[in-house]
Write a structure and sequence with these properties.
Elements lengths: L2 E4 L4 E4 L3 E2 L12 H13 L4 E3 L8 H12 L6 E6 L12 H15 L6 E5 L9 H12 L6 E4 L3 H8 L4 E7 L11 H8 L2 E5 L22 H4 L17 H12 L8 H10 L6 E2 L6 H9 L8 H19 L4
Helix pairs in contact: 1-2, 1-10, 5-6, 8-11
């Protein structure tokens, strides 16, 4: 699989990475053996970038990655985690003492002295404009606790503010065929500044797989049940903020655009990989089969222009009005 330079850090990541939220919590139950099998399948398929966070399963996701990486010293995998969601979401909590404490915990969980990439985990909007916050992140680099830092954002405006910061190596943002707004300004700005882009929620919480119907029932501990309207965290993280009924109908149209031999999920991932400025896309996987299928999308030929045009038309007709004004 192709690798791309990971922003200003100079690190490299496979064009399709692996998101590991589901290995910790909020997507139903995944046992430890299956979680390790997912990591193994991804790595064997050419994935060299794992994305996690300290709150995924209260550290379970980080610990699972550590167990896998330590068992496979022959592999080179860039591991990125996130911090900031373990406390009340007020700007006053984003200070150096907390950063050090959170970093200590993540380094223990991951079993490393220095973390490859640490991202602020969708902090309050004022955090992006705080010199003190980014001075503190620079201090973590100077102390060799982290190799590089980035941010995970909810909105395009937050992304643009972060990209203007000289030390930011990466911006993680929701980007998929149902969330195209970042194409307008964020990706061009990142390219110009040399900032990596991590595309998250690439399948719109599974909608773009084309497997769901209006009658699909998700587990009670799945965020697609308990956060459908933003009850627990930003609504944009669940189904990309698209109304579920609308999303199911639009996903059926999207599925029909998949070329022969390509699944709808692979089409969505290939579309993201093909966008100028994207460094890596991080689909989750709950089984080794899903991990292999996702990785295969990173090896597909470029999508034809007529397919790209049809995807854009679908977004304009069915989705744009619901999401662009909010994120």
């Amino acid at each position: 699989m192709d690798e791309r330079v990971f922003g200003r850090s100079g690190q490299q990541a496979s064009v399709v990475g692996l998101g590991t939220w589901q290995l910790g919590a909020d997507w139903g139950d995944v046992d430890d053996k299956e979680a390790l099998a997912v990591l193994e399948a991804a790595a064997e398929s050419g994935v060299t970038f794992f994305d996690t966070a300290d709150v995924y399963g209260d550290g379970r996701s980080e610990e699972t990655i550590a167990t896998f990486v330590q068992s496979r010293p022959d592999l080179h995998v860039l591991v990125a985690t996130k911090m900031g969601r373990r406390v009340d979401q007020v700007p006053e909590n984003y200070v150096l003492d907390n950063f050090r404490a959170w970093n200590d915990r993540s380094r223990r969980n991951l079993g490393v002295d220095r973390i490859d990439l640490v991202q602020l985990h969708c902090p309050p909007t004022p955090v992006y404009s705080s010199d003190e916050v980014f001075d503190a992140l620079d201090t973590l680099v100077e102390e060799e606790r982290i190799a590089a830092y980035g941010v995970s954002v909810e909105t395009c405006d937050e992304a643009l503010t972060a990209i203007a910061r000289p030390g930011v190596a990466s911006v993680q943002i929701i980007l998929n065929p149902f969330r195209m707004k970042p194409l307008q300004r964020v990706l061009p700005a990142a390219q110009e500044a040399g900032v990596g882009i991590i595309a998250r929620v690439p399948l719109a919480s599974g909608l773009l797989s084309g497997k769901y119907t209006k009658d699909t029932v998700f587990a009670e501990n799945d965020h697609r049940t308990f956060n459908r309207h933003g009850e627990a965290f930003d609504q944009g993280e669940t189904f990309s903020g698209v109304d579920y009924a609308t999303g199911v109908e639009a996903a059926a149209e999207f599925s029909a655009l998949a070329p022969e031999g390509v699944t709808p999920a692979q089409l969505a991932l290939a579309w993201i990989v093909q966008q100028p400025g994207v460094t890596t896309v991080i689909p989750g996987a709950r089984s080794p089969e899903q991990a292999r299928a996702n990785a295969a999308a990173g090896k597909l030929e470029a999508l034809p222009s007529e397919t790209l045009a049809a995807i854009s038309d679908l977004y304009e007709r069915r989705i744009k009005e619901q999401v662009e004004s909010r994120w």
